């Protein structure tokens, strides 16, 4: 009788951590706005990230700061080197979404 080999699947902890950060609602948009617009004050970010409440924006910015992705200097939020390194990944996700996500799925 032939034995069937069963492989247990597990996510790489680093990959899982990355998606925990990037998959949280608003984080991708915040990063995109900072990548495209450069350093911004809170009010500018709030205006450029549509529909996010101030409370949630503050919470997300603090989380991104704790992760070393965003820093706040002289009342300006800016991406760190770690944050800027996400640019190619975010462009890839944008390209994928343009190809595969329909307008109906966005509503």
Provide tags for this entry:
107 residues, 2 strands, mainly alpha
Structural class: mainly alpha
How would you name the oligomeric state of the polypeptide chains in this document? single chain
Q: Strand-residue fraction?
A: 5-15%
Strand order of the largest sheet: 1-2
Helix fraction, binned, reads 55-70%
| Main sheet makeup | 2 strands, antiparallel
Average pLDDT for all residues:
93
Radius of gyration: 18 Å
- Elements, N to C (H/E): HHHHEEHH
Report the end-to-end length measured between terminal Cα atoms. 53 Å
Give a description of the structure:
The structure is a single chain. The radius of gyration is 18 Å and the shape is extended. It has a two-stranded antiparallel ribbon. The longest helix is centred in the C-terminal third of the chain and has 14 residues. It is mainly alpha-helical and 107 residues long. It is built from six helices and two strands, in the order ααααββαα. The model has no long low-confidence stretch (mean pLDDT 93).
Layout: helices, strands, pairs:
Elements: H1 13-22, H2 27-37, H3 42-48, H4 54-66, E1 70-73, E2 76-79, H5 81-84, H6 87-100
Antiparallel strand pairs: 1-2
In short:
By secondary structure, this protein is mostly helical.
């Amino acid at each position: 009788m032939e034995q069937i080999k069963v492989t247990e699947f597990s996510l790489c902890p680093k990959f899982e951590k990355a998606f925990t950060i990037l998959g949280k609602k608003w984080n991708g948009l915040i990063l995109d706005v900072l990548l495209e617009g450069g350093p911004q004050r809170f009010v500018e970010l709030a205006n450029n990230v549509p529909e996010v409440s101030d409370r949630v924006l503050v919470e997300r910015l603090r989380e991104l700061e704790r992760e070393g992705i965003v820093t706040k200097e002289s009342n300006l939020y800016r991406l760190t080197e770690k944050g800027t390194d996400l640019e190619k990944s975010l462009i890839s996700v944008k390209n994928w979404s343009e190809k595969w996500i329909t307008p109906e799925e966005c509503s």
